[in-house]
Amino acid sequence: MGDKADVWQGTLVLMVLKTLEILGPQHGYGIARRIEQTSGDLLSLNYGTLYPALLKMEQEGSIRSEWGLSENNRKAKIYTLTAAGRRQLKRETMSWEQTTSIVARFFEKTEDPA
Amino acid sequence: MKSLRAWLMRVAGMFSREQRRAGFDLELQNHIELQVEENLRAGMGAFEARRAALMKLGGLEKTRQAYSERGTVPFLETLMQDLRFAGRQLRKNPGFSVLAVLMLMVGVAASTAIFAFVDAALLKPLPYPKPDRLVEVTESVSFMPRANLSYLDYLDWKRMNREFQSMEAFRPTAYLLKTASGTEPVPGEMVSDGFFRTLGVAPLLGRDFYAGEDLPSGPMSVMLSFPAWQKYYGGRKSVVGEAVSLNGIPYTIVGVMPKTFEFAPRNNAEFWTALHATDSCSLRRSCHNLTGIARLNDGVSVATARANIITIAEELEREYPVTNRGQGVSVMSLSEAIVGDIRPILLTLLAGAGLLLLIACVNVSSLLLVRSESRKREIAVRGALGASPWRLKRQFITEGLILALIGSGLGMAVAYGLARVLVQLVSRDMIIHMPYLEGMGLNLRVFGFIMTVFLIAAVLFSLTPMSRLSSVEMREGLTEGARGSSGRGWRRLGANLVILELAVAVVLLVCAGLLGKSFYHLLHVDLNFEPQHLATAMVVLPDAVYAKDAQIVAVRREIVRRVGNLPGVTSASATTVIPTSCNCNTDWIRFVGRPYDGKHIEVNQRDVSAGYFTTLQTKLVRGRFFIEDEDAGKPLVAIINKAFAKKYFGNEDPVGKRMGDTELTPKSIKEIVGVVDDLREASLDAEIVPAVYYPIDQNTDSQFALVVRSKQDVNTLLPVLAPTIHAIDPGVGVVEEETMTQYISDSQSAYLHRSSAWMVTGFAGLALLLSTLGLYGVIAYSVSQREREIGVRMALGAQRSAVYRLILGEAGRLAGWGIAAGVVCSVGAAMLLRSLLFGVQAWDAGTLATVALLLGTSAMFAAYVPARRAASISPQEALRSE
Fold first, then answer.
1. Is the confidence metric ipTM above 0.90 for this complex?
2. What whole-number distance in Å separates Cα of residue B265 and Cα of residue B251?
């Protein structure tokens, strides 16, 4: 066990969607940094795994990409949430909240885990 | 939905890989730059900043790999790679690829075309509902297993049988159709009232015959075939109810048959009339002119039905001993009756094509084997570099699939064309009797056949090279190339394949030889007449005009006389049956002054005009020919053939002996006045049976055949026959003008023998070519593998002749075994062919020897080329290449 947790299976997509909703259009590096920062540097994100996930989401139609300029004036691929992506985010947020609330109930009476 | 979309995008992504890769590289680059900048800002050194950025990414290459895998479908992607690689492999060896594809194509094309033929003829059921319930029902006599049925017997069989739902009868005929432009002879068929209902076919237009419409008192009604409806009435719907004049008698059109209706025994009949049994023949139980068909009751077998009819026939024999003694029964399935004759030939052809396909597959396999041997190194290297065994196997499967796919695809295309050609080759006359062939094509069954062949080929072509891919072999592969000795295992397998191939080729060649010899014998069978320069035609007199015997005699004499006077014509004559047609139109006779045992003496009967035998140039053995004016007013006479004289008179002189009908009715007594040579009356491969000839003027019939001999090219005579006869009476029908040689070569027996001989010869020729190529491939490869060994031998002082001996000896051993095995198998195969052989034994030594010699020679020739190459190996170079 390291100090930082790996990104949980299946949550990366949700994080990306949420990040794009909050930040608006963003390039891959920005998304990666944001996820890491948001987690308070508790999550260890292998940046390389982000790109196939972005490609997959693009193939599935939740995000789209276009070429734009990054802050250092380089050509960068900018990802934007699509309407389908927003719907997906809403759905997944609800289901995530439900899941966590269910799981949380199991721990209501117990103390903080070690 | 989402995942489908993603999948489609990934498939599409396979076609834009390069673009995506370039884009991603740019994106990655930007990513790294940003990270490096940030790291620098955090105070790292330049080198450390870049290293940390790459670490955070998890490795450039790995990221690229993961991205690109997500971008496409990896399975398809590797498949594409395999395909591309296979394509490269095939292109790299164009000789091998083209040869392999061509061989498979030849095999597939031949077998598919033949299968389509067999499918059309044997598998396609009769185009009627429940076709397996239909049977042909006829009488049977000693030399005609399926003779005609007499009308009165038909009525009794129909009435007394218990196993048929219905039983019907039909009889071909020709009608003189009165059209606006004159009189035209048309083919017709007389059928009993329930004929179409028994077949299960309903008219397209109008109505079917009603029950009782075929009684002598019934109305004269006719149904049109679809082509006749189109041809004479332009497809007018109002045709039903109209009148039509056939033989000068008015008939009413009651219906039109559908376009799809076919009736193989007489598919060209245009006018279908109800059978009015008013002719003199139908009133006599001894006169046989019908064929019966019946529909079996459900659950009744053909054998049961036959047994039932046999009982009835026996009953009738007791009741009518004079007419029915010795009258047997034939009941067989209708499909058997229709295609029975051609079945053995088709099965032979199918077997031949199958063997050719086998040779082709064996050949391609042995080529693949040779190649996999020389690719051992490549495979071993790929294996050593980390390709999994499955990946390597997949490569072979892909290559096998490609080969099989291209080969069978091309084969299918060629087969399609070939099948069309085959149908074209079948003469019009034959198609009338085999209408089912016209519908031949690439239907589902044929397609299934091709798919089966394709799958077998694909499996074979992938397994063969794979069998060389055991892990041990692979390990050897890396080291072996240097040593250059070919595996013994391979040599044994390759050698066995060559032996198999040669054996199959021998079988095909022997069968082709035997069939060819049969055909030769058939065409050179003794006809006992001179067929060159003879023309024949059928003449039909309108019954209504020529009602009296004297009128028929007069007009026939006039026709014969006028035709005989045409320029170039040396003689003209008339007969009731053209020679080489059939053992049919028989008569029952009994000799005056001999004890009668009640057995019928059944002989071929022909009524001929006085000049008939001289026109045909058939030799007179004893006595005299008929003379002019030998008509009903003169004493009745007969001429018999040699077979007749030998069978019934032995050494006695038959001239002057008398005979009559089975009851020796005084007006039937005839005197034998002459004996002629055994003029061939039946098909070329049939036995010569006793025949009797009567003067045609003593026995009148409104249909007869003209036989005309010309000094000139007989083809120029054909077009003038009809005009000459129409000058006498335009109402007389003239049909089937043909030369005698054409008639003989178009006959079914000649046709079947010729076509099977040609086709099997074609297969055999291809087999010879393929097996020679196969032998060449194996020997050439074995030489290339033994170059070093041969070099050493030569360095040690072996002469060139010794090298030749070595290589040719090996080839000779293989060829010897192959040919020996083939000879044994072909005698067996020829035994199965026996029914198709004519005048030649299954173990014809000449054919066997010729084939062995031919194949031996070509095998040696195939081995000579690589042997010469081996002998020209320079020892120094062979050793240096170490």
1. no
2. 24
